[in-house]
Amino acid sequence: MKFPRWLLHAPVLGLLLATTFLLCCPPAYSETPRAAAKALTPLAEEWKTKINANTVAIIAGSPEDTYLDITHDLAVVLNDDNLRILPMVGQGGAQNIRDVLYLKGVDIGITTTQMLRYFASTGELSRSLDQQLTYITRLYPEEMHVVAARNVKSIQDLAGKKVNFADVGSSTEITARDVFGLLSINVDEVNMNEADAIAAIKAGQIAATVVFSGKPTEVIARIPASDNLHLLEVPYTPALENIYSRGELEPALYPNLIDAGRNLQTVAVDSVMITINWQPATDRYRRVAKFVEALFSKFPELQKPPRHPKWQEVDLGKDLPGWDRFPAAQYWLQQDKFAEFVAKRQVGDASAPADKQRLFKEFLEWTQGEAKKR
């Protein structure tokens, strides 16, 4: 489509007229999205519906983070014609909670029990966080890694020195502050990514860096012996017992950072898979429920090689006190325990509707009684 030549001889007038020309007579290729959608073939419409109906987006971590490895395993094992897991690179446990709550398109996220406690106590994200979020399952322990130069002999030696707590607002920053505070070790906090922090330790600019991640952590495992760095022990003191669990780091996982002959003591916090407390009648609930069914039914496959070794430490039935489990996950666990309940009693016919209803009612009463004992 060409403009009249005379427009070139009157720049200002030409510009005005050219704009009017384009507004009134847009080029044929400027098809609107709605018009383009109408042009879809029946097969394209079928794919559009199928992809959006069966895809579950999980916000994980950085490419070197265990969260992303775990989420990739989920995609490999659970993906089929009826379900597609879409792993998303995230910014860690703290931001993942924000993303699950507020980022469009995110169905599920991975964070830590410590981050849930932190945000619930501060009310920073929501005054009713425990009602807005539910958990699908607790996952594996995330160990605290403290990398330092060899001349730093213990974590107490870091007092008054510069220590990297990762990015501002990250789960590592918040949790590292808590642990160092409970250990009464005052450090000069700095904030940078792990690659830069390791370079800064080698250059003598900072004393150490802290990483909370499921072992083995790639960014730490690939530090060469020539860097002359090592991992520090984190003592499990009474002040840490109510929040953190014991952890160990093995020389086999970090041969360049731990001397052979003994495991290194540290602390750990559980990771947890969370989602919004969707209403059962919604599409989002249906998709997360479909994911839950696949996760629980195919879980044994996730514990086999070559999946990440952290799957060996996952207990799907482990509760998270103070938080509600996603109803579909709770139902699945109850069905599994119900079968156990019936088998132990060896009474009635669980396949007969009347007997099954009676037995399930007894089962619910039994589980409620057990819950009161805890």
Q: Which CATH class of the largest domain?
A: Alpha Beta
Please describe the biggest sheet, giving its number of strands, its sense, and whether it closes into a barrel. 10 strands, mixed
Q: What is the share of helical residues?
A: 40-55%
Radius of gyration: 27 Å
Number of domains: 4
Share of β-strand residues: 15-25%
Q: Which spans have pLDDT < 50 for at least 5 consecutive residues?
A: 1-31
> In the CATH hierarchy, what is the architecture of the largest domain at level 2?
3-Layer(aba) Sandwich
User: How many strands appear in the DSSP assignment?
Assistant: 10
- CATH level 4 superfamily of the largest domain: Periplasmic binding protein-like II
Mean pLDDT: 85
Distance between the termini: 78 Å
Order of helices and strands: HHHEHEHEHHEEHEHEHEEEHHHH
CATH topology name of the largest domain? D-Maltodextrin-Binding Protein, domain 2
The best one-word shape is: globular
The helix-and-strand class reads alpha/beta
Helix count from the secondary structure assignment: 14
What do these coordinates show?
This protein has helices at 11-24, 33-38, 42-54, 66-78, 93-102, 113-122, 129-132, 171-182, 194-202, 218-221, 283-297, 299-302, 327-345, 353-373, and strands at residues 55-59, 84-88, 108-112, 133-149, 162-164, 188-190, 208-213, 229-231, 245-249, 264-276. With 374 residues, the chain is α/β, with parallel strands linked by helices. It has 4 domains: 5-30, no CATH class; 44-139 and 277-326, D-Maltodextrin-Binding Protein, domain 2 (3-Layer(aba) Sandwich); 141-270, 3-Layer(aba) Sandwich (D-Maltodextrin-Binding Protein, domain 2), CATH 3.40.190.10; 334-373, no CATH class. Strands 1, 2, 3, 4, 5, 6, 7, 8, 9 and 10 form a 10-stranded mixed sheet that branches. Strand 5, helix 8 and strand 6 (188-190) form a beta-alpha-beta unit.
